Amino acid sequence: MQVTLKVRRYNPEAEKPKDYWQEYNVEVESAGTVLDALIKVREETDETLALRCSCRSSICGSCAMRINGHAALACKTRVSAVAHQGEPVTVEPVGNLPVIKDLVADFQPFWDKVRAVQPWLQTAGPEPEKEYLASNEAMMHLAGVVNCIMCGACVSDCTVLEVDKNFLGPAALAKAYRFAADPRDAATSQRMGLYNQYGGVWDCTRCFECVQVCPKGVAPMDRIMALRERVMANGLKDTYGARHTEAFTEIIEHSGRLDELRLPLKTYGYTNIPKLIELMPVAIRALAKRKSPPVLHKSIPGVENVKRIFKKVDQLQKGDGKVSTEKAPPKP
Ligand code: FES
User: Fold this and answer.
1) For the whole prediction, is pTM greater than 0.85?
2) Is residue 289 part of a domain?
3) 144-170, pLDDT tens digit by residue?
4) Cα–Cα distance, 242 to 330 (Å, whole number)
């Protein structure tokens, strides 16, 4: 099949380096991938096109790029799946990382953040004779997260990193979870303190982009939520994020629906005047659009059933601790 690739190019060695689009028409087999098409362009049409790849089998993670605006592995993306009715397929380097040349990004900031979460086991106690052992059962919840191939797709499309480069990001935090939730790790409280800081678990806005683009079903956002649970379980509750979580839960338990008026008051504190003044423009805009929540908040009919659910969950958590949002992610 014929396809037009519209590639975002950047040459740092040009006299005035700036990015631009270049189109290539290429013939690929019907089962051909975007990576096949790009390699064909480089081999037959334009040897100056820079891109990274290695395994061509969705294993090494080096061919992550943005295809039609979303991060994906070029070696896993069939041209036929993204070339809609003869429209050109746009191909760009991954987002949220500096570009070195064309489709090649500089992953140094990515690795710096992965390193910052201490991605190694920190054990305690006397060293065992052979190796540290963990039961299969205790490791099952890590089955999805260990699939991460560090391709950077989640980082590319993270909407928080678009506006705040200090955020550790989905890949690093998923890696943090992999070690924090390992039964052999003994650095829980030190880790939780680290992940609770500015740029850590509370900066995720739960936009689901990372879950959607991850080619391996790691579901980084779910890992970040699980880390939040662990942070709070370690007694670290003095952040807006933790207070927001507690306020949200309390309100739902009380009335069965969210009270959007009290949620910010409970989160920031009724006497936190500077923060409440900061929120005034939002309140005024909501009022102008007739979206402001009612001052008198009513419970939903049958709220006692909601309370019963909370009570049951509480009992289960106190009992065997089997209730948790730390679910295994869907298979890729
Ligand atoms: S080339 Fe290795 S994942 Fe695509």
Assistant:
1) yes
2) no
3) 999 999 999 999 999 999 999 999 999
4) 27
Mean per-residue pLDDT, 270-293: 91
Q: Which CATH number does the domain housing residue 24 bear?
A: 3.10.20.30
Q: Are residues 181 and 309 in the same domain?
A: yes
Q: What helix, strand, coil percent values describe the chain, rounded to 5?
A: 40, 10, 45
Query: Which pLDDT does position 274 carry in this prediction?
Result: 94
Euclidean distance between CA atoms 268 and 270, whole angstroms: 7
Tokens of 144: 């999805």
282 within a domain of the structure (yes/no): no
Q: Does residue 331 carry a pLDDT above 60?
A: no
Range of the domain at 70: 2-97
Q: Does residue 11 carry a pLDDT above 60?
A: yes
Ligand 1, pocket-test mutation among 56, 77, 156, most atoms within 8 A of CB: 56
The number of the ligand 1 atom at minimal distance from the alpha carbon of 151 is: 3
Pocket lining for ligand 1, CB < 6 angstroms = 53-56, 58-63, 73, 75
Residue from 67, 73, 104 whose mutation best tests the ligand 1 pocket (most atoms within 8 A of CB): 73
Q: Is the residue at 326 inside a domain? A: yes
Position in ligand 1 atom list of the atom nearest CA 56: 1
Residue 283 located in a structural domain: no
